[in-house]
């Protein structure tokens, strides 16, 4: 035995005390650091007690709430955010009542910084327990307003591109087409499926290839956008004239990564130009025939030149030297001053003129001359030349006289017209109306002229003058619509209105001419047709189309108000017996009476519809469970009363199924659930009422049981990993294997992945389970590489795993512990991550890529992926979804999609693996499409590691011919 001395004991005690103090200091520093991090975090954190008073919050949450941390501590949440409290309170109660967390709940409303606006927050709530007792609620709040705005802007931009009338498409720096809008398809004849992945050189005619290649080189070098008018080739070989605008597309670093191309069809413009040139030639000939004179005055030389027709128009013998005074001497004295002023303005100020004046020719004949002149100025503004024309306008003046006579006839026609006519001033106030308008509106002229028509425009209509002036402001001269007016006796008349803005010869607006026609009879017929389209022809009740609309509106309204909406599915018991015994006429009469009784048993705001046959549906909005039951019982009881039919009394019963909407309800699910409940009521003996709740309860209980068992599955070693070989179709050898999770439940046996994977995702269990699968796969890979050094393994990463803290660090830790080579590990990602936070997942993928692992997109083509994601994220491979592989060889659409994916991947230097290969034909078609890798039941089913070991040890080769 060794006995320590007192000095030694004292020294040990001092050492122990020093170590305890060190631990206390480190713990305090850690707590202070954690507090500082939480306080300054960009995410709001808080804790409220069971009475919903604020116990703890960081500065971010305090700022969101609109005051300081100190001002909010100890305060009720309802007092801090009163406008948001109606949304938050039910969530708090759900957490306390269920003891479960509520994750990713969106809350929206005004913020302290912008009380009049609306912001959006993504919130999570979780119970906080102490000694197995829930003492409060933890709160996490993330402001997602800008993310939603960005997403909306992205959707709007996509809609603008797709809705553009111009062809818009993108290409890579190598010239491969990456996007293609509908206008491009219409212009060039290529569908997006056909051209995406091809070179845009297919659009270039043979003679313009050099031009096309030079533009590509310049833009790739970063030169500015180029605009050229050229020709491009369509899918049918024809050519189209286009204005092509090509611009370089740069990434965040300024590097050119592709091109954006806009092609505008200028075929019509070029055709118009050619037509214009031809028209000009014809016009020149027409002017010669019409004897249109022209002149030119050169101020440098002082010389004036006239055409031969100018001499004829003025009645002057050819050969005389023309002068301005010669013209002025012929002008009527009354017209001479305006002509002299216009001439002076043109020669001195460079102002063009266009005017008409009278002349008296040498033969004493008076003519009307229409003169136009356009000055030509030097750079300093000095007039150097004056060009003009003189046209004998006498015939037009005579035509104006004739027109005046025609206008007189118009006056007679205006007053005697059988349809309403009115003239409005430019403020849309009537200045004249005919008798037909007075008859239409039931008012005399003095109650119409000079007054706006708002007093007798139907209150549901926007006044005509508002619509009219808005149309004119937009640059349109005509307006037409159909609207209602109220007569003095309060009857409503429908009228079609057609209004035209009348302009003078100079194009200035003068007045509006409006025509009105009574269309009341036609509108009545249209309303009847609309009613027939939305109502059952037999009972007059709402039909299925109107029922679906009312359901959708009711759901939206009930969710806004936080109220309940119930749906009752009613089916008459043994209705066929009524038809068989009393005949179909009696059956139809019974259905009409049943509809009337149901309508009388429900509340005024509820909807009853005939769903078809002897089925009726009732929608009750803003209803309690008790009231729902009472309404259902009234309906059942009133239907059960005898019906009189001629000399017979018919008694029928009805079975009712009731479904109450929850947060996930849709019109279809409510009809389905109430229908299911109705059949359950029939099974109980007919004439019963059944609420839809058992099936949901069973479903939730099964999910809960699965979740509880899954939490224990990993520690009980119930989870295993199987591997499905990936075969190189060029050699028939196995080059990789995909790790697939399997669960052997002790009671339920093999549980299908689709029964527990989603639950693992929802609960977060997928994170530890996924880490375990990755480690198992990497350890297995190390053993396989002792047989085949080039062997690889693929492991799926879910969105939840990608969102976990430091996923890259977790993967790196597994690689280091197992010794697996990163380049032989492929992490497969679902497409859905690309629609989440692109910045966050972009950084995460970049972190994973720095480890040296490969990244692949699983089930490619079924989600939201696009070429922009493939370009932005460091992806190495794509896996073609089995739904497309299924149609290879039989579905041209699927074959084209797979071909496009393979071509695209090849252009982007990505590896392609086809999933779900089930038949030999699919295998043959994949080889034809140059798809190198494949997996599926036809090649090998997922198997335990030992079975795959034997295949690898035996150097097994697959027959892929």
Low-pLDDT segments, ≥5 res: none
Reported CATH architecture of the largest domain = Alpha-Beta Barrel
Secondary-structure content class:
alpha+beta
Determine the N-to-C terminus distance: 81 Å
Q: Give the tally of β-strands.
A: 36
Mean pLDDT rating: 84
Helix content: 40-55%
Q: How would you portray this structure in words?
A:
With 961 residues, this protein is of the alpha+beta class. The protein folds into seven domains: 35 residues; 103 residues, PAS domain (Beta-Lactamase), CATH 3.30.450.20; 123 residues, 2-Layer Sandwich (Beta-Lactamase); 108 residues, PAS domain (Beta-Lactamase); 109 residues, PAS domain (Beta-Lactamase, 2-Layer Sandwich); 153 residues, Reverse transcriptase/Diguanylate cyclase domain (Alpha-Beta Plaits), CATH 3.30.70.270; 251 residues, EAL domain (TIM Barrel), CATH 3.20.20. Helices cover 43% and strands 26% of the residues. The strands form seven sheets. It has an eight-stranded mixed β-barrel with strand order 28-29-31-32-33-34-35-36, surrounded by four helices. Strands 2-1-5-4-3 form a five-stranded antiparallel β-sheet, with helices on both faces. Helix 23 packs across helix 24, helix 25 runs parallel beside helix 27 and helix 27 packs parallel to helix 28. The longest helix has 35 residues. The protein is extended.
């Amino acid at each position: 035995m060794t006995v320590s001395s007192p000095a030694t004991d004292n020294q040990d005690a001092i050492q122990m005390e020093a170590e305890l103090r060190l631990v206390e200091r480190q713990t305090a520093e850690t707590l202070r650091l954690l507090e500082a991090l939480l306080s300054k975090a960009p995410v709001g954190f808080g804790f409220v007690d069971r009475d919903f008073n604020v116990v703890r919050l960081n500065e971010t949450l305090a700022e969101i709430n609109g005051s300081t941390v100190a001002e909010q501590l100890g305060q009720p949440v309802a007092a801090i955010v009163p406008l948001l409290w109606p949304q938050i309170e039910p969530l708090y109660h759900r957490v306390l009542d269920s003891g479960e967390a509520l994750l990713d709940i969106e809350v929206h409303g005004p913020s302290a910084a912008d009380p009049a606006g609306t912001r959006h927050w993504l919130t999570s709530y979780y119970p906080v327990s102490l000694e197995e007792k829930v003492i409060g609620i933890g709160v996490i709040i993330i402001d997602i307003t800008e993310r939603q705005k960005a997403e909306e802007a992205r959707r709007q931009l996509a809609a603008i591109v797709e809705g553009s009338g111009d062809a818009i498409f993108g290409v890579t720096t190598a010239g491969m087409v990456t996007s293609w809008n509908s206008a491009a398809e219409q212009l060039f004849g290529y569908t997006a499926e056909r051209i995406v992945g091809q070179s845009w050189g297919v659009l270039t005619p043979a003679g313009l290839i050099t031009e096309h290649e030079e533009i590509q080189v310049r833009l790739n070098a970063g030169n500015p956008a180029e605009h050229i008018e050229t020709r491009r080739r369509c899918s049918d070989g024809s050519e189209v004239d286009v204005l092509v605008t090509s611009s370089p597309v740069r990434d965040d670093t300024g590097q050119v990564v592709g091109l954006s191309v806009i092609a505008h069809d200028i075929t019509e413009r070029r055709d118009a130009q050619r037509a214009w040139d031809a028209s000009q030639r014809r016009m020149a000939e027409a002017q010669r025939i019409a004897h249109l004179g022209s002149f030119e005055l050169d101020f440098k030389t002082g010389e004036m030149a006239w055409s031969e027709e100018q001499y004829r128009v003025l009645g002057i013998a050819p050969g005389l030297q023309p002068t301005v005074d010669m013209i002025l001497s012929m002008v009527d004295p009354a017209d001479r001053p305006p002509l002299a002023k216009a001439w002076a303005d043109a020669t001195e100020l460079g102002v063009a003129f266009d005017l008409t004046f009278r002349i008296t020719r040498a033969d004493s004949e008076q003519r009307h001359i229409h003169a136009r002149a356009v000055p030509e100025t030097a750079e300093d503004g000095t007039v150097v030349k004056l060009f003009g024309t003189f046209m004998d306008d006498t015939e037009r003046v005579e035509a104006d006289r004739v027109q005046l006579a025609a206008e007189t006839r118009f006056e007679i026609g205006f007053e005697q017209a059988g349809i309403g006519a009115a003239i409005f001033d430019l403020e849309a106030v009537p200045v004249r109306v005919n008798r037909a308008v007075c008859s239409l509106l039931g008012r005399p002229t003095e109650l119409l002229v000079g007054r706006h028509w708002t007093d007798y425009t139907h209150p549901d209509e926007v006044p005509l003058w508002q619509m009219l002036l808005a149309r004119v402001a937009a640059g349109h001269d005509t307006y037409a619509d159909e609207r209602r007016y109220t007569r003095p006796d309060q009857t409503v008349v429908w009228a079609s209105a057609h209004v035209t803005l009348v302009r003078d010869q100079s194009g200035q607006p003068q007045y509006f001419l409006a025509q009105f026609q009574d269309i009341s009879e036609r509108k009545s017929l249209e309303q009847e047709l609309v009613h027939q389209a939305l109502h059952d022809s037999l009972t007059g009740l709402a039909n299925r189309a109107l029922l679906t609309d009312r359901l959708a509106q009711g759901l939206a309204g009930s969710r806004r108000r936080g109220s309940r909406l119930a749906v009752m599915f009613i089916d008459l018991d043994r209705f066929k017996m009524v038809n068989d015994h009393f005949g179909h006429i009696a059956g139809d009469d019974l259905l009409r009476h049943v509809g009337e009784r149901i309508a009388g048993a429900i509340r005024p705001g509820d909807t009853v519809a005939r769903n078809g046959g002897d089925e009726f549906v009732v929608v009750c909005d803003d209803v309690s469970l008790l009231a729902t039951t009472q309404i259902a019982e009234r309906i059942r009881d009133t239907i059960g009363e005898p019906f009189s039919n001629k000399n017979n009394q018919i008694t029928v019963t009805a079975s009712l199924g009731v479904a109450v909407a929850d947060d996930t309800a849709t019109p279809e699910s409510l009809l389905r659930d109430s229908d299911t409940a109705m059949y359950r009521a029939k099974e109980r003996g007919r004439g019963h009422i059944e609420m839809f709740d058992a099936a949901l309860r069973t479903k939730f209980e099964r999910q809960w049981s699965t979740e509880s068992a899954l939490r224990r599955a990993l520690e009980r070693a119930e989870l295993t990993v199987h591997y499905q070989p990936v075969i190189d179709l060029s050699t028939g050898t196995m080059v990789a294997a995909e790790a697939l999770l399997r669960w052997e439940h002790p009671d339920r046996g093999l549980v299908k992945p689709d029964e527990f994977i989603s639950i693992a995702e929802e609960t977060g269990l997928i994170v530890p389970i996924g880490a375990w699968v990755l480690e198992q796969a990497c350890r297995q890979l190390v053993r396989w590489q002792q047989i085949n050094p080039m062997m690889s393994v693929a492991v799926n990463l879910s969105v939840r795993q990608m969102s976990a803290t430091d996923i890259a660090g977790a993967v790196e830790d597994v690689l280091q512990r197992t010794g697996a080579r990163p380049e032989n590990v492929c992490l497969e990602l679902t497409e859905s991550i690309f629609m989440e936070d692109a910045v966050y997942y972009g950084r995460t993928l970049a972190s994973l890529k720095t480890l040296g692992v490969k990244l692949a997109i699983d089930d490619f083509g079924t989600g939201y992926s696009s070429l922009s994601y493939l370009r932005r994220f460091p992806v190495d491979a794509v896996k073609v979804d089995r739904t497309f592989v299924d149609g290879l060889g039989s579905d041209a659409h699927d074959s084209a999609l797979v071909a496009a994916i393979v071509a695209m991947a090849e252009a982007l230097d990505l590896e392609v693996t086809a999933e779900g290969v089930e038949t030999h034909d699919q295998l043959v078609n994949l080889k034809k499409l140059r798809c190198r890798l494949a997996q599926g039941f036809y090649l090998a089913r997922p198997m335990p590691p030992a079975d795959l070991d034997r295949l690898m040890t035996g150097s097994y080769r697959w027959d892929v011919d």
